[in-house]
Design goal:
Layout (H helix, E strand, L loop, with lengths): L19 E2 L3 E2 L2 E5 L2 E4 L4 E4 L14 H11 L10 H13 L5 E5 L2 H16 L3 E5 L46 E4 L4 H11 L3 E6 L15 H12 L2 E5 L12 H5 L5 E4 L10 E5 L1 H4 L18 H15 L3 H22 L4 E6 L2 E6 L8 H7 L2 H13 L3 E2 L12 E2 L6 H17 L5
Amino acid sequence: MASEFSQETRVGKVLAGWNSLGELGPIQIKRAAGARVQLENGKWYDDYIMGWGSCLLGHDSEVIARSIRKSLRSGYLQQYETASHEALGNKFCSVVPCAEKLRLVNSGLEGTMYALRIARAVTGKRLVVKFEGHFHGLNDVLSWNTDTSDSCGEFFQDGSLKRMAGTVGLPPESSQWTIPVSWNDEKAVAQVFEIYGADIAAVILEPIALNIGCLKPAPGFLEKIRELTKRHGALLIFDEVLTGFRDNLGGAQKKLNVTPDLAVYGKAFGCGVPIAGVAGKSEFMDVIAPRGPLQISGTNTGRYFSVCAALAVIEHLEGSNVFEEVAKVEARLKRNLELIFRDHSIPCQIDSYGGRIGVHIGSDKTPATMADVARVYPVDFANNLFSVLTKKYDLYGFLMPLAYCPEPLTLSACHTLEMIDSASDRLNEALREVPYDH
């Protein structure tokens, strides 16, 4: 019997999976401008997803548009190396602390996959330590113990967590290369290094865990990991796809004053154009061909228009007050949210980085781990509130819940204080309609 979906040409009516927003389903956008999106019904919504953090300069930045228009005069999608490629490499490495060399890729998923391959190539080891809730793209080795896993993992005696698949279709044996541990658990990290250190190639992490809201590292935690990796001959990899180019040009590694061996960048690196990169110290990057034997390549990698746009972004961020403007609206929204949730007697902890704000509803103290968030996050309430804010109050992606943690509110250089205050007023009204009963 034919499925009711058999006539679909787009799976679930979307060509890109994350364009279907939870209970709202697929939403088609007619136009995007600044920090707003217009749906097919003609209504405009204030946008608090902003390309999942990519569109730091807004949806129609003239900086991006001008660079692409200029690049199209030189061959459209030509992939050959140009002076702009050299300029991007030089500029990138001048601002990112760990970056002595850069290799471009197309996505964060590719970047983290290749970063692990570099680590294995230079160390001769196999295992990777990752943290529960940290998302590094949907490749087999790193899709364990993510926010899409069925639940948080139970603790094993060796300090690691039970391997929890983040999706179906993963070969179970791929979990044997991954050691998941709890974020901010210094004892657990030390324990797995004591047991498995001779075969650990790398530790990979989000320096600030934005994927599960915004969980910052405890004081001294990253420094301890840096010390352990050096002592055991493993590489420290920062996944800065979410944090990079949002608070400062150097990334979270500069902000936190901990320099990794390798780092992966994406999203705001191109501010909307498809580009990502793996960067690191020469002694590790030189394993890559044509300097060394490791292959990192792809037909669509380093397209001229993306390279030109990324270079224009960095130059613009260097010479403008974008970071200050984003910090200003971030501070206003954080303050407003704190007051509103307090006035409605709803426990909530709020933290932020680079215009991305984690709103941990249900938490009466700052969460340190994914388990802390999942234990108290009111999923039904969060879904109901999100639905009302979208359908009635014209806010796109505002306080969007994931499985059992919040997607951060994402701001851009196009958000204004007036937009922030208006969104806050609408939230205040919506909370009068959606009862919190916990």
